[in-house]
Amino acid sequence: MNKGKLFVVATPLGNLEDITFRAIETLKSVSFILAEDTRESKKLLDRYSINTQLVSYRDQNHGKIISKIVEKLDMGLNLAIISDNGTPLISDPGYKLVKYLRENNYDISTIPGPSAVISALSIGGLPTDNFSFLGFLSKSESKRIEILNKFLSLDTTLVIYESPKRLFKLLDLLLNLDPKLYISAIRDMTKKHEKVYFGKISKVIADLENDDLRSNPYGEWVILVSKKI
């Protein structure tokens, strides 16, 4: 019997209409879907009348369910993995699974689609010919400073994910490291209140404060950082 295949399926960042026909058909056809948060994923599945069973998959439970995943693949069943939004594995669960399956010669296919990294670069207004994705930085300030100093020495645009509660902590740190930096702070891409704050870092911080975001932080943020425009 031929082994089943794992499909790594990109899903919308926020607007549920941002999904490909191929992604919908794949999610309908597989035996079950590995999802980071099954409650969030069910909203997408309900929107497109996808009745495939959802199974919770996170880095924390990888060791507990990998044998069951392999068992299903060995039965010839195809599976899919999705994250809460965007492309799986990019600061989301899935790397451990893909690594294990690659090492054991299982087939894996990508169903490409939205990615917060690429979407942010496409609208941010900072150089896109060379970029470094840093994901979520360490909560340790000393490690954050070490990483930022390392990458700020390179001729590259930095892409950073940040929570709303730590947004100003990151921007204040960047301002202290280099007040000449250019920033694009992008909130809630593809959603109703999407907004881009762009310019010298001091201007961006002032604009964010004018919108009362220092005292009332909210939203999902991607931060682009560059020494030039």
Features:
229 residues, five-stranded parallel beta sheet, alpha/beta, 10 strands, five-stranded mixed beta sheet, Methyltransferase, Cobalt-precorrin-4 Transmethylase, Domain 2
Mean pLDDT: 96
Q: Could you give the count of β-strands? A: 10
Number of domains: 2
Q: Supply the CATH architecture of the largest domain.
A: 2-Layer Sandwich
Q: Which stretches of 5+ consecutive residues score pLDDT under 50?
A: none
Helix content: 25-40%
Helical/strand content category: alpha/beta
If strands are numbered along the chain, what order do they take across the biggest sheet? 3-2-4-1-5
CATH superfamily of the largest domain: Tetrapyrrole methylase, C-terminal domain
Computed Rg: 20 Å
Give the biggest sheet: 5 strands, parallel
CATH topology of the largest domain: Methyltransferase, Cobalt-precorrin-4 Transmethylase, Domain 2
Task: Report the β-strand fraction as a percent range.
Answer: 15-25%
| Number of helices, where a helix is a run of at least 4 consecutive DSSP H or I residues | 8
Report the end-to-end length measured between terminal Cα atoms: 55 Å
Q: What's the level 1 CATH class of the largest domain?
A: Alpha Beta
- Oligomeric state, counting identical vs distinct chains: single chain
Structure description:
This protein has 229 residues and is an alpha/beta fold. The protein has two domains: 5-111, Cobalt-precorrin-4 Transmethylase, domain 1; 116-226, Methyltransferase, Cobalt-precorrin-4 Transmethylase, Domain 2 (2-Layer Sandwich). The protein is 36% helix and 23% strand. It is built from eight helices and ten strands. It has helices spanning 21-29, 38-47, 62-74, 95-103, 116-124, 141-152, 167-177, 201-210, and strands at residues 5-9, 32-35, 53-56, 79-82, 107-111, 131-136, 157-162, 182-187, 195-200, 221-226. The protein has a five-stranded parallel β-sheet with strand order 3-2-4-1-5, with helices on both faces. Strands 6-7-10-8-9 form a five-stranded mixed β-sheet, with helices on both faces. The termini are far apart.
